[in-house]
Design a protein that fits this description.
The complex is a heterotetramer, with 2 copies of chain A (422 residues) and 2 copies of chain B (150 residues). With 422 residues, chain A is an alpha/beta fold. Chain A folds into 2 domains: 9-37 and 310-418, Aspartate Aminotransferase, domain 1 (Alpha-Beta Complex), CATH 3.90.1150.10; 45-306, Aspartate Aminotransferase, domain 2 (3-Layer(aba) Sandwich), CATH 3.40.640.10. Chain A is built from 13 helices and 15 strands. Chain A has helices at residues 9-14, 42-55, 65-85, 99-111, 136-145, 165-168, 191-200, 252-257, 292-308, 310-329, 358-367, 380-385, 402-418, and strands at 30-31, 93-96, 123-127, 148-152, 173-179, 204-208, 231-235, 246-250, 268-271, 276-278, 334-337, 348-353, 370-371, 373-375, 391-395. A 7-stranded mixed sheet of chain A has the order 2-8-7-6-5-3-4, with helices on both faces. Chain A starts with 8 loop residues before the first helix and ends with a helix. By secondary structure, chain B is an alpha+beta fold. Chain B is built from 6 helices and 3 strands, in the order ααβββαααα. In chain B, strands 1-2-3 form a 3-stranded antiparallel sheet. In chain B, strand 1 and strand 2 form a beta hairpin. Classes of the chains: A alpha/beta (422), B alpha+beta (150). Chains in contact: A-B, A-C, A-D, B-C, C-D. Chains A and C meet through helix 2, helix 3, helix 4, helix 5 and strand 9 of A and helix 2, helix 3, helix 4, helix 5 and strand 9 of C. The structure holds pyridoxal-5'-phosphate (2 copies). One pyridoxal-5'-phosphate sits between chains C (98-100, 131, 133-134, 179, 183, 208, 210-211, 235, 237, 246, 378) and A (264-265, 288-289).
Chain lengths: 422, 150, 422, 150
């Protein structure tokens, strides 16, 4: 057996009903698209069903028994997420609809009147390996505020090019926003170092943990304050939770400085025709009926991951990724984009196969039940950086077995023979 | 059914509700605050007059349910005339009672009529009502002290 | 039997598992808080479970079999919602996280550069009976754009005061936004007339259908173009669907004129470091992973309502509301806020009870299993208009029985005796 | 398994993919468009030259999978030399085939090599690939006509 795999892997697989599915032609499912969205364990589904069948009511505003039960379940989910992140304070956890909204929330409120308002001459620094959700909000906000958007470039092996850090992070820098783990290259970025540098010039740091939260233990409270980001986001559906929910963690200091984002029910203190005042965090940023049943599901999801243990999940991902990288090395014409050492990367592996377009790879694999992603993976600038228009990507998770990797590699060999690339 | 209600609506609470103590806004005061329960809209405007480390007066104008009104009345009984330190420790004790979900045994020597709120702690949705005036008082007191320190 | 009730009422009740619940002390649940959030039928829960257990994958971007199934289910939900609204085009249906986000989307994009950009001197007209979610976004946007916010007042019996319409809707008016059915007063507003007047001065019309969609048949395509709003929003959780999803319908003409709202994955055409271009509607306004399983649930929900028949639901609401209004008339000291004729109102009834604070009413009712709402119902300006700080509100839905109304009225009598108001 | 694939990847498709007809960008042209499949990033830049109601030339530069590339090649074969009206009706027929989910029987007299795409209609995720160049052509043709009308 490969060292580092989850010892109870077969038991874990039983927790995920979809893994029993067969596809067209009776093919068993080999799901290698978890960086796109993860599958859901029964306990998450059951928690949501129980909520809908027994405890459904609106929160905060409803003071009857169902309302109290629902509010308690919703706020308990906030506690669970706070524990999952090691958040210094539970009220620093804001529920959004996905990671994208969380990033837009920060970007937009930084462009509106307030002590941190972005202005002409200010600079926002992101990186060439960002997901579109951590690019487009900043492009839009730069346009509207007059601030300038600057980019960390990438080295040929898919790391951040830190050689120009002194030129990039300067007194003009107001925000540094970057992904912890790249969804395309798998690269794990140096959060502590970048944050320290940004803090030294007085900039705030936003970390996109959409790919990190599923697979790395996170403990915000344990970070040295100067190395702790000011905001960090992730998305429910990639951490075995449901769609329709994302998380913004922000330090109290930052969240209190930012003006409110969306206006509406539940984010107010009082509303009058002349003007309104706003609730304290977290409610200040949660306008309207929040994703209640989704929070219940997410709470069950992060508890599930913690019960397996994030260290163990991380080990497993590393072992599977190493095994997949080895396998890919046996496929002629296969070229991996990003770091080649599993110890330094996350579990998403983008690759090319000489002579076969990524779409066609994904198609042939799909007929064999192997689900991978093809395209730009919402990371066009990173693709452009490597001179490719698109790539195929396999991504594993805590339920992935070495046998599934074997099936994947075998399917790649078959793809080559099917398209007669010799 | 009515027992359950009686646990919440103790006679003492209803008495304070019908005849609130220390109601109305008075002078002198160092700080005035306005607190709202955003969930239901209950409001209180509250003034604190601190003199020489002692809570000389707390006056208020409150709009709200029986629990929040009675709580304001009981709170003023408990803190007026005490040193700020003593009053803060009573505040602490009341807070502990309210957040105890019904598991905390109240100390009548400290909380006096406030022990009537022990039942409220079992109604999570009402805890905020009971705490509104206490939170306003704490806020106003802190501001009074700041104002006098300046 | 009361005329107008749903003939299969007992069968319908069986569709909603939560209605079997008992509360503290073995009290059966009498759920009269449906204007706050509705309960969910088994078919909605089952559709969500089936999706999570068998078809879960990301949409649009995933091209394997699960991805195709998930995308198809998600887009089928859009078709169902389009049919529910009688939308002229299915691509005019945008999924948001709730009604509040939908309203903020329109308000914010109107404040950004584009052919309809709000400026100083422009006027936005709303009404004094709006939910905070249709007030605060306009207050914030008015502040940021320099536009002026103006208000329709209310008559003493809780209707819009149209006597000043010529002063309010003028050449300066750029947006008129109002609720179709008031969540506090129950008032049904004259959508056609207001829209015609607004269109005559070139203003766009935004209708908050959060309370209308659950109980009135809507057929946008059948409306005369000059009487058809330009945008209409509602929220999933009030139409027997899940939380975490809302709907913005907008005319293609309007949606194409508005700039994008949130930036991120799936709303782009192409992303480059210099600049990005955006997808066509509906995707232009759906940044990031959308609420997939929520859309599946919402699709099942609106299909459920259509299978019962919105006309029949409306009749039922009217019959129950009339019965409740009669009952309230027997309670000494009870005073209803809003129109007293059930034929002219929706199913939410806000009321006061002399000598008992709304919170205390709700509390006594709750001990008897009757769930109503107390407070300002996110409509503080309307409460202020009637000189009350808060009220109690009972709201029925297609599963409400006359016996439940009896229990509610009886509980009010008991409340009076408990608080010794004679 | 391979049968299923063969239904999608007909020999004709693979031939056009390996040896695309009319590829490259040429002059003269009245309109050039750039279309993208936002899902996967496939791109095409396409030029149309219409002369006297006839599609005189269609030239293109395409990046994409076998289906999208082959489709561009087949499309140019079908429309170059036809009247705009005839070409548009072929476009219509191809669209119907692609959106038929596999239930539409293609007419070889009209679609020629295009009938090889009948299998693609059964793969919903690939329909967009097959249509990319056709949509670009229609767009460019409309613009060409506008340009000449001016
Ligand atoms: C009239 C009205 N508008 C808007 C909303 C806001 O809906 P949501 O909280 O789902 O955004 C509600 C319900 O809360 C409502 O009743
Ligand atoms: C690195 C990264 N950031 C952001 C996102 C956006 O997440 P969501 O689509 O849930 O908003 C994703 C996933 O799609 C991602 O991989």
């Amino acid at each position: 057996m490969i060292p580092g795999l989850l010892p109870e892997l077969q038991v874990i697989r039983k927790d995920f009903p979809i893994l029993e599915r067969t596809l067209a032609g009776g093919q068993p499912l080999v799901y290698l698209d978890s960086a796109n969205t993860s599958q859901k364990p029964q306990v998450v589904i059951d928690a949501m069903v129980d909520h809908l069948e027994r405890h459904n009511a609106n929160v905060a505003r409803a003071m009857h028994q169902l309302g109290a039960e629902s509010s308690e379940a919703f706020e308990a989910a906030r506690d669970k997420v706070a524990a999952f992140l090691g958040a210094p304070e539970r009220d620093e956890v804001i529920f959004t609809k996905n990671a994208s909204e969380a990033l837009n929330l920060v970007a937009n409120t930084l462009a509106w009147a307030g002590p941190r308002q972005l202005r002409e001459g200010d600079e926002i620094v992101i990186t060439e390996m960002e997901h579109h959700s951590n690019i487009v909000p900043w492009q839009l906000v730069a346009q509207r505020s007059g601030a300038t958007l600057r980019w960390f470039g990438l080295t040929d092996d898919g790391r951040l090019d830190l050689s120009r850090i002194d030129e990039l992070i300067t007194e003009r820098t107001k925000v540094v926003s970057f992904t912890w783990v790249s969804n395309m290259l798998g690269t794990v970025n140096p959060v502590a170092e970048l944050t320290r540098r940004a803090h030294a010039v007085g900039a705030i740091v936003v970390v996109d943990a959409s790919q990190a939260a599923p697979q790395l233990p996170i403990d915000l409270a344990a970070m040295a304050p100067e190395e702790r980001p000011d905001a960090l986001v992730f998305t429910g559906h990639k951490v075995v939770g449901p769609t329709g929910i994302g998380v913004l963690w922000g330090s109290r200091a930052l969240l209190e400085e930012l003006p409110p984002f969306l206006g509406g029910g539940d984010m107010i203190e009082t509303v009058a025709m002349e003007r309104s005042t706003f609730a304290a965090i977290p409610h200040k940023f949660e306008a309207g009926t929040p994703p209640i049943v989704e929070a219940v599901g997410l709470g069950a999801a992060v508890d599930y991951l913690r019960s397996v243990g994030l260290d163990a999940v991380h080990e497993h991902e590393r072992a599977i990724t190493a095994y997949a990288l080895e396998g890919l090395a046996t496929v002629p014409g296969a070229k991996v984009l990003g770091p080649l050492d599993a110890a330094e990367r996350g579990g998403a592996i983008s690759f090319e196969l000489a002579g076969v377009h990524p779409h066609d790879i994904a198609q042939v694999l799909d007929v064999r039940g192997v689900a991978v992603r093809a395209g730009h993976h919402c990371a066009k600038p990173a693709h452009a950086r490597f001179g490719v228009q698109s790539s195929a990507r396999m991504s594993s998770y805590l339920y992935t077995t070495p046998e599934e990797i074997d099936a994947f590699i075998e399917a790649l060999h078959y793809t080559r023979s099917y398209f007669k690339v010799a | 059914m009515s027992q359950e209600l009686d646990a919440l609506y103790q006679e003492i609470i209803l008495d304070h509700y019908k005849n609130p103590h220390h109601a109305g806004l008075r002078e002198p005061f160092e700080a005035e605050v306005h607190h709202v329960n955003p969930t239901c809209g209950d409001e209180i405007t509250l003034r604190v007059h601190v003199n020489d480390g002692v809570v000389d007066d707390v006056s208020y104008d409150a709009l709200g349910c029986s629990i929040s009104q009675a709580s304001a009345s009981v709170m003023t009984d408990l803190v007026i005339g005490r040193t700020v330190d003593d009053a803060l420790s009573i505040h602490e004790e009341f807070l502990t009672l309210m957040q105890g979900k019904g598991s905390v045994e109240p100390d009548e020597d400290v909380l006096e009529d406030g022990i009537a709120f022990a039942g409220v702690a079992k109604f999570p949705a009402r805890v905020k009502c009971a705490l509104l005036s206490w939170m306003a008082w704490k806020d106003a007191t802190a501001r009074s002290l700041e104002a006098s320190a300046r």
